[in-house]
Structure formats: C-alpha cells, structure tokens
Amino acid sequence: MSLWVYSALAAIGLYVYHTVNVYRAHRADQAHDKQNHCLPPPSLQNKWPLGFDNVLEALKATSEGRLNEHLLSTFRRLGPTYQQVLAGEATIMTIEPANLEAILSSPDVWGIGMRRKITLPMFGDGIFTQNGEAWKHSRDLLRPRFSHRAYDDLEVYREAVDGLIHVLSEKKGHVVDLQHLFFRLTLDVTTKFLFGESVCSLRSSNPEFEAAFDVSQKIVASRFRFQKLYWLVGGAKFKASCKTIHDFADNVIRRKLERAEQDPDAAGDDFLCRLIQDCADHDALRGQVVNVLTAGRDSTACLLAWTFFHLVRHPHVMQKLRDEISELDAGRSELRRSHLSKLKYLQATLKEVLRLHPSTPLGTRTSLQPATLPTGGGPDQCSPISIAKGTTVMFSQYSLHRRPEIYGMDAAIFRPERWESGSAIVSEDPTHQKMGYMPFGAGSRTCLGMDFALTEAAYAIVSMLQAFPSIMLPEDEKVELVGLEKQTVTIVLRSTDGCKVVIG
Ligand code: HEM
C-alpha cells in the first residue's frame, strides 16, 4: 500500500476517533448542562474537518504579524466568549472577566494542560511546566527570592544599564534597534540576579545562544497552536536550539558548583545557590534555571521595546516623562527603587504600554474535571457554559485590554493619562475592575517577577532619558494606528520590525 493510502486511512481513523469522543462527551455533559442551565457559547465555524482551517488561519495571521488583531476581530464578531475546533480539539476562547476570575482562581480545577508537554523540551521541569504539588513547591522556593529588599538599591541592574548607556553613546547619530539591545540588557540583569554574575552580553554578545532562544520560542508557539497534535511541530532544529540553551544553563551551574567547591564562603547567597541546595538532581536544577531565565529576559525586554516604540511616536508623552524625571533630586548613581515608584507619569506609561502590548498576550488553562464557566452561553451570551474535563480555554490579554466596555471608546489609543488617577478601567462592574487588566496574570499563578520587572524597566528608562537629551523616530520609520504595526507572537509579544530610534 502506498504512503498516500496509509495517510488517508490514518486521517479517517483520527476523524472517526474524534467524532466518537465528541459524541460520548456530549452525551455525558447533557445532564449536567440541564441541571446548571448551561448553554453553549457561539461557535467559530470550521470549513475543514478537525478545524485545520482555523489552525491554518492562525498560522497565516502569525506569519503576517497580525495574530493578536486576528483574534481581536474574531472576539468583536462573535462576542467575548466563543468556541472553536482547533486541530480536532473543542476549545473555548474568552476575554470575559467573570470567566477569567473563575478559571485563574481555581488551580485545582484548571491546570496548565498541554503547556507542560509542549514546552518541556525547551523549559524542562520548572515552575512554568509544573502542576499541583510540584508547582506549589517551586513557587514556595522561588517567592522569597523576589523580595524587593534584594533590589531596593538597584545594584543588581546598574552594571547592565551602564553597559547599555555605553553601547548607545557609541551609536550617537545612527539608527539603533533598541529592541535587540533590550534583550541583551535583560539577559545581563537576569543572569546577575539569578547567578550572582552577569554574562555581560552587552559587552560581548553570544549570538548562538540568542538565536537558539528565538528559534525554540517560535517553535514552542507553533506547537501551542496544534495543541494535542503539538508533536507534529519540532524536529532537529528544535532539538539543537534546546540543547544550546541547556548547555548554557549547564555551564553556569557547573561554574557555580566549582567555585563553591573551591571556596564555600565565596559562593554567595544568590538565587542559584538556593536552588542548588534545594534541587537534588541536575535536570531539576537546570529546569528551574531555564524557566526563570526565560521569564526574566523576554517579557521585560518586550516591555522596554514597546515603551520606546510608543515614546518616539508620541513625543508629547516623552516630553512629559522628561519633565517628571528632571524633578528628581537624585542622579543615576544615587537612584533607589523608592525614587522610581514616585514617578507617577512613568508608572502610568508602563501600565499603558502593558495594556496595549502585554508581554504575554495569550494564556491557556485546561479543565482537570468537569466545570462551569459563569457566563457567555446561549443567545444572549449570559448563560453559564458547561466545560467537559480536558477542555482547553484560551484567553487573550491583548484583546481583553482593548475592550471598550472596560476602557471606554478610546481603548485602542495610547494614552498614559488614563492611569493618572489610579485605575483606567471605566466600567463600574467590580469583576471588570478586578480582572480587566492582567498583564502579569492573575490568581494563584500571578507573576512573581512583577515588581522586579517594573523596577528594571523604570530604571532603564530614567537612565536613558537622563543620559540622552534626544531619542527620536528615524525619518523613514512608519507611524501607524496602534495595533496595525507588525507583531511577532512567540511566548512573548515583540515588534516584528524592532524599535528603531536615533540617539542624540
Ligand atoms: C514585564 C515583565 C513581565 C510580564 C508582563 C510577566 C508576565 C507574567 C505572566 C502573565 C505570568 C503568568 C503565567 C500564567 O498564568 O501561567 C507570569 C508568571 C511568572 N513570572 Fe512573569 N512577567 C514579567 C517579568 C518577570 C520577571 C522579570 C521574572 C523573573 C525574573 C518573572 C517570573 C515569573 C515567574 C517565576 C512566573 C511563574 C509563576 C507561577 O507559575 O506560579 N516574570 N509572568
């Protein structure tokens, strides 16, 4: 029999298997639905079996740099909660605060689902890939290390930020892609924080490591779109880039262990030392290192890049920031975290950047048992929705943060002033107030590095504005409506064309 016949039989087998499963689940859920007055949400119709047209549509939008806008327009068309079939899996999409609250506050009902299998080759075993007791243990282990007392004096950031200012000083008058440099800045800060010493990538870059991180993240993002069929995406390139990342982590761990052996007193009391004491086996140690390294590098770099992306396109915001910073009674070397948190307009600007361009634009959870979502079902989209065990729910912070019901009719516009009086949420619904803004997640798995990241970003911005009297948009750079710029979505959200500026 030819390969084509085998493939056709396999596809038919998969289709029948899926149909039988759907039917059985449907029958089992009917009684539960009736009892709880549950009704299904609107459906995104698929034209091809198993919803492969939806997968292709998402992949096409991703390659064209408009995945987030594609999802946003689907939410606008179908409502804040809808269902779709994605690679054979019935999936719920939601940006409804009440549903998000129900999901994110119940880790015993909602787990990370396929995230573990999809990301394991890159991340290994660590806080992002764990559920249940293992995750609780990691969170308890890591949380104390994020106390702001560890970086109140900003020492952990200083060497890297000085390095950035030095690199930029040498490029005065030229077009510079800040995004590229911010990924090095945050790598240097995170390695200093984690390992007690920076890899100093701003001084001498490690292109192989940087490329490996980018490749593996892109592949991980594609695997997410295929859900249970994630294993279709991967291959030798993925393996090789994961190996480069693991080798990097292994080298750092080995160096630390050698130093501790030579002189136990000089080993220090940094993040890695604490992890070494806790993790009995090498793979577990490496997993935690890669997990926190990825979290620390990428999301903060994206925040900084999107901040300058907006600042050079909104010179009046840049000027207001400069005015606020000029009031500081401390130079760069005397700055402390307490100075930064008093800069209200800077804090508002960071909030606005994370509203429109949340570093982590998409999230998922999978039900560990039959569950109910409070709203989104039926013709008026207000009835509860019944969720079968094993169903994946995806949510889009990007689309949530652009809902006019929550932020008003100018929700799509970059306007830091909306945060000046505290909350920018115009809706009076308490659930909207609580869950309408969640760039750092919400509930039990809320980001542990939130304050660390905001302090890092604020310090880098203040330092750059103090050091350079002019940071401008290059003449031939595009200025488009916010959201029309090309976006690259991997695990994080970056600007596809970078963040080009001229430093003066
Ligand atoms: C602008 C910067 C950042 C953003 C927007 C951000 C966003 C997020 C989000 C949305 C989550 C929740 C993921 C989920 O629901 O599963 C998360 C979790 C996490 N973040 Fe961040 N993050 C940032 C910076 C950082 C930094 C700098 C670190 C560490 C150095 C960090 C460490 C973590 C950790 C350890 C978790 C896992 C929490 C858990 O699963 O219990 N983050 N972050």
Structural class: alpha+beta
CATH architecture: Orthogonal Bundle
Residue ranges: pLDDT <50 for 5 or more in a row?
A: none
Strands, count: 12
What percent of residues adopt helix (DSSP H or I)? Answer: 40-55%
Pfam families: p450
Cofactor: heme
InterPro entries: Cyt_P450, Cyt_P450_CS, Cyt_P450_E_CYP52_fungi, Cyt_P450_E_grp-I, Cyt_P450_sf
GO molecular function: heme binding; iron ion binding; monooxygenase activity; oxidoreductase activity, acting on paired donors, with incorporation or reduction of molecular oxygen
List keywords for this structure.
binds protoporphyrin IX containing FE, alpha+beta, 19 helices, Cytochrome p450, 504 residues
Description:
One of its GO terms (molecular function) is oxidoreductase activity, acting on paired donors, with incorporation or reduction of molecular oxygen. It comes from Pseudomassariella vexata. Pfam families: p450. This is Cytochrome P450 monooxygenase. The chain has 504 residues and is α+β, with helices and mostly antiparallel strands. It has one domain: Cytochrome p450 (Orthogonal Bundle). The chain contains 19 helices and 12 strands. The strands form 4 sheets. It has a 5-stranded mixed beta sheet with strand order 1-2-8-5-3. Strand 6 and strand 7 form a beta hairpin. The chain starts with a helix and ends with a strand. It binds protoporphyrin IX containing FE. The site of protoporphyrin IX containing FE has 23 residues, from helix 6, helix 12 and helix 19.
